[in-house]
Amino acid sequence: MPNEQDQPFRTLISCAQLSHALAAADGPAASHLRIVDCRFDLRDTEAGRRAYAHSHIPGALYAHLDEDLSGPILPGRTGRHPLPEAADFARTLARLGIGNSAQVIVYDDGSGSMAARMWWMMRWLGHEAVAVLDGGWAAWTAASLPTGEGVETPVNASFTANPRPELVVDAAEMLAKTASGAALVIDARAADRFRGENETLDPVGGHIPGASNLPYDGNLRDGLFREPAELAARFGQVMGNRPPSELIFYCGSGVSACHNALALEHAGIGEARLYPGSWSEWITDPARPTAQG
Question: Contact, 52 vs 65, CB < 8 A?
């Protein structure tokens, strides 16, 4: 599914662009276009699947955050949404009809953080032709664009993973980097949770010492991502002269941090690294330092 410059979509795609691509392909099953619905509610984990079955973008298949975009939770060791093994996620992609030549479009019905999680995971496996639908389901339905219902049948596919472990930071490296100041650590959560206030998802409030706070929802205006120049200015205020390779993003469980990673790349700055375990993993070891305020 090429864009105007005959290049794959790698960060965002508009509803108009996706609508045009669907019309040109006469449906996603007739092309390399694959659409994935990532709607999910942390407090009602089946709400997204129900919403998908009721109505979705034509041809879309559903990916569940807990079942498809996360690995097993190990109490006392992992966070709330640990990364799956690369081979397991590759099998999930194949089951969704995604092959290595596919142009993948992902969307959700919120800020885009659930879709950004899948976007980042596909980049982690070496697949660059993946983009988030700007504005997601809300923008699609507001434009009165076509929808389907029921559960779509996936096509057969084979996906070969080419993992990029350099994009991932584990807790041990995070501890070393924060202690030495060798990285700029950015927390994507809301400011109150960063300060340790109003924490409702994790048993301990606060943040990793030395982290800066850049809430992911600041990447948006009126439900859409800000223009690249605006995003570049936003990140530049925090980054200073640091290169993107020195940035490490985290959040509560490794989901909304991917929103910042997507925004950084859409801004044209480059790729940062992700601590997928994030705060919910960090606090499983009481020996790791925490900060409040």
Answer: no
